[in-house]
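Backbone geometry:
***
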Amino acid sequence: MIKDLSVTILVDNRASENGAGTEHGLSLWIEADGFRLLFDTGQSDLMFRNGQLAGIDPAEADVLVLSHGHYDHTGGVGSLLELRKDLPVYCHPGVVIPRYSRQSDGCMKPVGMSRSSAMALMNREKNIIWVTRPQYITGHIGIVGVIPRTTDFEDTGGAFFGDPSGQSADPIEDDTSLWIETVRGIVVVTGCCHSGIVNTLLRIRQITGNNQFYRIIGGFHLVNAARSRLDATVAYLQAERWDRMVPCHCTGEVAMRYLEQYFPDRMEAGFAGKEIR
């Protein structure tokens, strides 16, 4: 079991007062007993600038894990792989497919990985570990793979499509998360949780046989969630064993306040520059 674990938020929609920049995106730096893992890259090179403030160089990662193929999680891939041409990358084969989102005005917005990031990734395909099933990255860090959608109240969290005309719904099958086995319990790290935070926790419990979640960190994609989904999510979390959650990025301000209302002593909002030990 991992004894010394820290998670530093390099990129998020909000930041601390230490001068860190913000953008709509997510990137997390994880150090586990000396093993260094970069989880997502935000939508630009901001992870490098914010990393400097925290004394972290993302190019020194031992592995890169991509939670899914949206632009706000993969924008720094090209720059990173230019610096680290041999860097192992764990991701689902679907991360490079085109994707779109219907906006409130009805317009379709491309939300997939940028062409430059996709080309940088595919040009180094020999370094990619394609993931569809649960597997360990190290002895005590695992990547979940495809997450079954078993709840009846969770969805992808938006109007996502695989074509610019909006005819083919995108289930975002590539959405995945990490579990980290520590001496205090399982630490769960999510990207956007398009599979649903409850589906994700259920799957990790099924994989590990452990229902003691110590920390739950990352985006929960509740930004568009109806009250019924928030109620059902809270009901599940109230029934489970976990110590503290650190929601950020796409969780949404309304959902943040809602979760804080029910778990005032166990929730702390995430932001760029925050370190969780």
